[in-house]
Amino acid sequence: MSVVVRTVARLLLAPVAIFGAYVVMHGHVTPGGGFQGGAVIASAIALAVVAFGAQRLRKQKETLSVLEDVGATAFAVLAFLGIGVTFFYNALAGTGGLFGQTVPIGPNPGALNTGGLLPLMNWAVGLKVLAGLGSMVLLLGLLGGDDDR
Amino acid sequence: MIGNLPFVAAMVLVALGLWTLMTRRNLIKLVVGIVLIENGVNLFLVSLGYVRGGIAPIYTFAPEGAPVDIPMVMPTPQALTLTSIVIGVATTALLLTLAVLIHRHRGTLDVRKIRELRG
Amino acid sequence: MRWLRIAALLVVFGFLLGAAVWTRPFGEPRATGMDDHFIERSQEEVSANNTVTAVLFDYRGFDTLGEATVLFCAVLGVALVLRRWSR
């Protein structure tokens, strides 16, 4: 790709990734969550693949694979944390501590410290979606040629 | 008819995708037709949960008297549509890899030339 | 034979548009009991301001688990179909 495309891509990669992380982190306060933020960060990966070529990013296949495994395993482990009551119980809601502040009933300016297990689950699903969609784009860029006949 | 406009728009999308599937020969254009049908169905599913005069089901900076005086839109169809969109992405990725494989083995993407099974 | 295909297409399109126009009026859902329970209780049980995220991860967490599995299987399918014969 030309110099203009590569410079603009270098300038835009960090703000897009930070915006995606913001959407994932504030999933329990504002509209957003794991799937939406993961798709935003995966579009940053697609921008890198288009602007710099897939051959420069072929070492990142193992990184994306590890991220996806961490996301899937963390989601399954977080689902088991409240197994004393039921399978997907929210074990951290209402207790003081990491994400356990109680929420006043009715309309209120949101606080980030609330939500129980929801922010952690948002991060697990966000990692899984970004690694899954990024792996799909990277694999189609690396192995999608037709010079194998 | 003007009252049900979101439903009509979703069905117009489904009809356009169906017409694309029936009249095109290139494999990539057939994938575009399938994606159009999926988008129409997702739009229909989201617009089923609207309550007249409702706001978004989020309590952050909501107007005063939110769940009692001003009704809130149903949140369940929105959650189901998120799942459906991700499943549509998975289906599209697998369709495109199959198109790449067919081009690699037969040299063409025209569906009228890929008729016989050949070992 | 061409007018037969066009007639069949028009019949299907007419059925779709008719189903969209003569269904329930837009803005009056039929059964809202479950969603009223979700909207009222999502701040005391889940302590989250966003009802959609609470429905996705707490009240209906199994759907999210199944959808994560579908995403994993799609990545697996793409990586397995596009392999190269290394000689």
List keywords for this structure.
heterotrimer, A: 149 residues, mainly alpha, 4 helices, C: 87 residues
Tell me the series of helices and strands of chain B, N- to C-terminal.
HHH
Shape designation of chain B: elongated
- Low-confidence spans of chain A: none
Largest sheet of chain B: none
Question: DSSP helix count of chain B?
Answer: 3
**DSSP summary, beta strand count of chain A:** 0
Number of strands of chain B: 0
Uncertain runs of chain B are none
* Largest interface: chains, residues each: B-C, 46 and 42 residues
Quick recap:
The complex is a heterotrimer of chains A (149), B (119) and C (87). Chain A has four helices and no strands.
Describe this structure in words.
The complex is a heterotrimer of chains A (149), B (119) and C (87). Chain A has 149 residues and is mainly α. Chain A has one domain (3-143). Chain A has four helices and no strands. In chain A, helix 1 runs antiparallel to helix 2, helix 2 runs parallel beside helix 4 and helix 3 runs antiparallel to helix 4 (118-143). The two termini of chain A are 27 Å apart. Chain B starts with a helix and ends in a 13-residue tail after the last helix. By secondary structure, chain B is mainly α. Chain B has a single domain (5-52, 68-106), classed as Orthogonal Bundle (Helix Hairpins). Chain B is built from three helices and no strands. Chain C is mainly alpha-helical. Chain C has one domain (2-81). Chains in contact: A-B, A-C, B-C. Chain B binds chain C through residues 1, 3-8, 10-12, 14-15, 18-19, 22, 47-52, 57-60, 67, 72, 74-76, 78-80, 82-83, 86-87, 89-91, 93-94, 97-98, 100-101, and chain C through 5, 9, 12-13, 16-17, 19-21, 23, 25-29, 32, 34-35, 38-40, 43, 49-52, 54-56, 60, 63-64, 66-67, 70-71, 73-74, 77-78, 81-82.
